[in-house]
Design goal:
Elements (H helix, E strand, L loop, with lengths): L1 E5 L2 H6 L1 H10 L9 H11 L4 E9 L2 E15 L2 E8 L11 E2 L4 H15 L3 E8 L3 H8 L7 E13 L4 H5 L4 H17 L2 E6 L2 H17 L1 H4 L8 H14 L5 E8 L2 E11 L2 E9 L8 H16 L4 E3 L6 H6 L2 E11 L3 H27 L15 E2 L1
Parallel strand pairs: 4-6, 11-12
Antiparallel strand pairs: 1-2, 2-3, 3-4, 3-5, 3-14, 6-13, 7-12, 7-13, 8-9, 9-10, 10-11
Helix pairs in contact: 3-10
Length: 384
């Protein structure tokens, strides 16, 4: 077995055919693990990335790929030089690219990372409880390195099985009443129409509508709308160019009378429809546009009987929790080198986790009726 570190963009580009072959052979290939995803990510979010993509080969065949980078990571006010996953706030999952879970091979890849970089800490962000990585590190119980798992998000999801009416009737009566009241109020103003766009030429015509809705919402106030972040704007447009005509991308827009009131930008892969972007027209906030868009979108998807999972992709809005009938946890995983520095960092991680737990409990007692204290998420790192 040969494990090779890829450290240049040129070598990364040359890896594309082998990566695509391996990715296509995985069970339910996920866009989030494709070479195209990381190529666009590197081109827009990492001006000068210190790449460290681990490639495991056997008999000239690529067996596994783990896309990482060297960077500085800040935790509790302290900067650490680490190796971490190629992820940021636009990443909705991260996993080892491999056709099977091989604990021995994965352990050798981790060993290679520590020996090549002389770093004592690896951070893997956005790791799903359903991923190969989680199974290899946490679920199997045979991972030889000290590690620490921190839940940093929990996605609200919906199983698109059966009929919409059967699903809807299982939700709380109070929530169903609120949905129907919002729909009646909107219909008094004018008809509601759901528009679905999944062809590239159509998407180009309707993109500006979606961007305008985002700017008018809370993301516009926080300067996080796509129109305001050029890299994010270009990233999602490139994804559309690649995946739209392969039925892997959908945009759902809801119109009330002559006004667009909300949209979802969704990626379809690995048995999930991920709502990676949402925009709401603040002028119609009293109508519950997000709630109504979700109802009309789910009615459409349930009718198609795809058996997929609808994924809200994070977000703490109460109405998302009211819709969901399943959840998926995402972890931030810390892996420590087998040396004195790694063991010291491992002990520190447990102390910090205990401190965070005590602080969150104290906050809950101080404000028992308030919103739950959010868990810390990835910072995104800073390139070395």
């Amino acid at each position: 077995m040969d494990i090779e570190p890829v450290t240049t963009l040129k070598a990364f580009e040359q890896l594309a055919p082998a990566w695509d072959h391996l990715w296509g052979a995985t069970s339910g290939p996920d866009i989030l693990s494709s070479h195209e995803w990381f190529r666009n990510w590197l081109g827009l979010f990492s001006a000068k990335p210190h790449l460290l993509v681990l490639v495991a080969r056997e008999d000239d065949q690529v067996r596994a790929i783990l896309p990482l980078m060297r960077c500085w990571e800040r935790t509790h006010g302290i900067w650490f030089s680490v190796v971490r996953s190629l992820t940021n706030c636009h990443s909705h999952g991260f996993d080892l690219v491999a056709s099977e879970a091989d604990p021995v091979l994965f352990s050798e890849m981790i060993k290679k990372i520590f020996s090549v970089t002389h770093r004592s800490l690896i951070i893997l962000d956005h790791v799903s409880e359903r991923s190969l990585l989680y199974r290899l590190i946490a679920a199997e119980g045979h991972f030889p390195y000290l590690h620490h798992l921190h839940v940093h998000s929990e996605n609200c999801q919906i199983r698109l099985q059966g009929s919409f009416d059967e699903y809807f009737n299982q939700l709380s009566s109070k929530f169903r009443k609120n949905v129907r009241a919002a729909e009646r109020k909107a219909l008094e103003r004018g008809p509601l129409q759901l528009v679905r766009v999944n062809r590239l030429e159509e998407l180009k015509q309707i993109t500006k509508i979606c961007y305008d809705l985002e700017v008018m919402g809370w993301k516009g106030k926080d300067k996080r709308a796509l129109f305001q972040v050029r890299q994010a704007h270009d990233f999602y447009f490139r994804l559309a160019q690649k995946w739209c005509d392969e039925n892997r991308l959908d945009v759902f827009l809801l119109k009330n009378k002559d006004e667009w009131i909300a949209f979802y930008y969704c990626l379809n892969s690995a048995g999930a429809c991920r709502a990676v972007r949402i925009g709401i027209n603040e002028a119609f906030r009293n109508l519950g546009p997000g709630m109504l868009l979700t109802k009309y979108t789910l009615e459409k998807l349930f009718a198609e009987k795809s058996g997929q999972i609808w994924d809200f992709c994070g977000g703490a809005a109460r109405w998302k929790s009211d819709w969901c009938n399943c959840r998926e946890k995402f972890y931030r995983i810390f892996i420590f080198a087998d040396n004195w520095r790694g063991r010291a960092l491992f002990q520190s991680a447990h102390k910090l986790e205990h401190y965070e737990l005590r602080r969150s409990v104290a906050c809950a007692h101080e404000n028992p009726a308030g919103e739950p204290v959010p868990l810390p998420s990835a910072s995104g790192g800073m390139h070395a």
